[in-house]
Design a protein that fits this description.
alpha+beta; Beta-lactamase Inhibitory Protein, Chain:B, domain 1; flat
C-alpha cells in the first residue's frame, strides 16, 4: 500500500522522523534491559534464623556460671543434650541468601555449645561454623558413608570370592 500524501509505502515514516524513532526505540530497549538487570541483582534477600549471638555476649559466659545464668544471658537454647558426664546447651543460627528466583544458599551457620559439668556449672564454651559441619539427614538419622561407590549388598559380599584366603582366611 502506498501512502498518497508522502509517496512512500504505508507504515514507513519520513526519513527524518524514522531515524529519531529508531534512536528512541534503541534507547528505550537499553533502558528496559538495564532496569531488568538492576531489578534482578537488587533482589538478594538475606534471611536469618535462630539465635544470632554477638561475640560480646559470648565473652560474658565464664567457667563456673550456672545453667540459669547462661539462660538469662543467652536465652533459651535451641536444643540441649547429655554429653559425657555433663550436659550441653546448643544455640544454633543460620543465614541464607536468595537472589531473585534462584534456590536459597546457606552462607553462614553457627552453633554455640555451652558445656556443663556434673554439678551444672559451665565447663567450656565452643563455637562451630559452617566449615565444621557434616551432612546429616535428621529425618532418616543417617550420614553418608565414606564409601562413595554405589555398590549393592551382593556385589559387596561376592567381591572377594576370587581372592585367595578371602573366604577362609588361608
Amino acid at each position: 500500500m502506498i501512502n498518497r500524501k508522502h509517496g512512500q509505502p504505508k507504515g514507513i515514516l519520513p526519513i527524518g522522523l524514522g531515524e529519531a524513532a529508531r534512536r528512541g526505540a534503541k534507547l528505550a530497549g537499553v533502558l528496559l534491559l538495564a532496569g531488568s538487570v538492576a531489578a534482578c541483582s537488587a533482589g538478594a534477600v538475606i534471611t536469618k534464623h535462630g539465635h544470632h549471638i554477638q561475640q560480646s555476649e559470648l565473652q560474658q559466659i565464664q567457667p563456673g556460671m550456672t545453667r540459669e545464668e547462661v539462660q538469662a544471658m543467652l536465652g533459651t537454647p535451641t536444643t540441649t543434650s547429655s554429653v559425657g558426664t555433663g550436659d550441653a546447651f546448643y544455640y544454633i543460627s543460620s543465614t541464607t541468601k536468595q537472589v531473585s528466583f534462584f534456590e536459597p544458599e546457606e552462607i553462614d551457620r553457627r552453633v554455640v555449645a555451652v558445656y556443663f559439668n556434673q554439678t551444672g556449672m559451665v565447663e567450656r564454651v565452643a563455637e562451630y561454623g559452617l566449615q565444621d559441619g557434616k551432612i546429616f539427614d535428621f529425618i532418616s538419622r543417617t550420614t553418608p558413608s565414606a564409601n562413595t561407590k554405589d555398590e549393592g549388598l551382593l556385589k559387596q559380599l561376592f567381591r572377594n570370592l576370587g581372592r585367595r584366603g578371602a573366604i577362609f582366611g588361608e
